Each structure stands twice: as C-alpha cells, then as structure tokens.
Amino acid sequence: MTDTWNSADKFNREASQWDENPQRRAVALGVAQAIIAAVKPAETMRALEFGCGTGLVSMEIAPLVKTLSAVDTSPEMLAVLQEKIGTFGITNIETSCTNLSASTESAFNEQQFELIYSSMTLHHIDDTAAFLNSISALLSSGGIVALADLDLEDGLFHDDPNEKVHYGFDRSELAALLNGAGLLVTSFETIYTFNKKNRAGINAAYPLFLVTATKKQSVTSF
Ligand SMILES: C[S@@+](CC[C@H](N)C(=O)[O-])C[C@H]1O[C@@H](n2cnc3c(N)ncnc32)[C@H](O)[C@@H]1O
C-alpha cells in the first residue's frame, strides 16, 4: 500500500470555516440526495463515509441507516462533526481519525459495511487502485460503494498549485479500477456542476459524478 497525499494540516486549518461556504453545503446536499436516490439507504445498513470532513453529507445519511462510521484524517474536521453529534444528540455516528489508504491494519479490519461512500475525497488519495481494493475488502458481499468526485479537469480546479491531487477522473478508467477491485459498476451520473473562477482566474464549469458499484458475490467452486 502506498502512502497518501493526505493534507491534514490544510483541512485542520479550514475546518472551523468549512461549513460557511454555501457552494460546499450545496454540493454536499446534492451528493447526499443523489446517494439516497441511487442507493436507497436502509435502517439495516452499516455505512462508512471516508473523508467525511465536518459531516455535511453524513448528517443527511445517518437518519436512514443503522450505524455510520465517519472517517477522516483531519482531527479538526472531525471535531466539528463531533460537536454536531453532541448538539443534535445523534447516537448512530461514530467518528474515526483513520487513514484507510495508509494501512491494511485499519481499525475496521474486523468490520464489514453494506454501504461505503465519499464526496470529493477520492481525488486526494494517491493510489486509487490500492485504495479501492481496501474499500472493497471492507464491504459485505453485495455491499454498495457510492463515490462522488470530479470528472477529468484542467488541473486548475484547486486554488493551491502545490496541492497533490488527481485532476478528476476519467469515467472509463475509474470503472476499470472499480472492476479490478471486485466492484461491478451499476450507475454513473452527473449530479452537480461547480461553476467557479479557477486558479487561472477563468470562469469554468467542473462537473461532479456519482458512481455506484456493487461488490461481486464470491463464487464457490466445488
Ligand atoms: C474536499 S474535503 C471533503 C469533505 C466532505 N466530504 C465534504 O464534502 O464536505 C476532503 C476530505 O477528505 C479528507 N481526507 C483526505 N485524505 C484522506 C484519507 N486518506 N482518508 C480519509 N480522509 C481523507 C480530508 O481531511 C478532508 O476532510
């Protein structure tokens, strides 16, 4: 497993103001609604969000599932979510400061999930193929993964040119990686378009996809 491009310092610094950005809140709500429509979360499901941040998406999903593991590498982002959990008396979200891409010995090795999702986090993780394998190992048979992220972009979406990120994803390539991790793609849709002034100062449109995939059933041979 390779190390991550984790930028916990950056997200720690941004955590206290994260929710103040209206576009972030709109994207998170759009992602949550798209996941709910595509996956139909059920009260029997154990769910996990990686890169949950302040929980903008998971606060929408939590009421619909049995348990929710909210995972992030930034303690400050998780502290904001923890405050919401306390304020609203939420009993089924557990936060975890864990880097799923850094170790196979993760806190979740013994656990299985029926639903794993993320929003705008996959492009922050260096080795996509290895990471999808880790995620697949955490899914129960028939479990669902739902990933929202940027389509291939011009490399100008992020304001900081030194931030290590993937410049979005080619849908066919990502589908092949999911397939290689034992995950069968069931849908790929455009769910939102960021309209923003990019790093070059140009107004540009950056579409966001949601891909869903199901863990293939293991075949028993006789
Ligand atoms: C762009 S933010 C998105 C946060 C949240 N999903 C939202 O939509 O508001 C990316 C998040 O992923 C987290 N992150 C980056 N690398 C990670 C990793 N390897 N494992 C877990 N979280 C990670 C960051 O700390 C940050 O909170």
Keywords, separated by commas or semicolons:
single chain, 222 residues, alpha/beta, Rossmann fold, 7-stranded mixed β-sheet, 6 helices, 7 strands, 29% helix, 28% strand, globular, binds S-adenosylmethionine
Explain this structure to me?
With 222 residues, the chain is an alpha/beta fold. It has a single domain (8-215), classed as Rossmann fold (3-Layer(aba) Sandwich). Helices cover 29% and strands 28% of the residues. It is built from six helices and seven strands. The protein has helices spanning 8-14, 22-39, 58-61, 75-88, 128-138, 171-180; strands spanning 46-50, 67-72, 93-97, 113-119, 139-150, 183-197, 203-215. A seven-stranded mixed β-sheet has the order 3-2-1-4-5-7-6. β2, α4 (75-88) and β3 form a beta-alpha-beta unit. It starts with 7 loop residues before the first helix and ends in a 7-residue tail after the last strand. The mean pLDDT is 92. The structure holds S-adenosylmethionine.
Offer a concise description of the structure.
The chain is an alpha/beta fold. It has helices at 8-14, 22-39, 58-61, 75-88, 128-138, 171-180; strands at residues 46-50, 67-72, 93-97, 113-119, 139-150, 183-197, 203-215.
Question: What are the secondary-structure elements, in order, as H or E?
Answer: HHEHEHEEHEHEE
Bound molecules: S-adenosylmethionine
The strands making up the biggest β-sheet line up spatially as 3-2-1-4-5-7-6
End-to-end C-alpha gap? 33 Å
* Low-confidence blocks of residues: none
The fold-level CATH name is: Rossmann fold
Which CATH class is shown? Answer: Alpha Beta
In helices, the fraction of residues equals 25-40%
Looking at the structure, what is the overall shape? globular
| Helix-strand category | alpha/beta
Sheet having the most strands: 7 strands, mixed
The CATH architecture is 3-Layer(aba) Sandwich
Total strands: 7
What's the average pLDDT?
92
User: Proportion of β residues?
Assistant: 25-35%
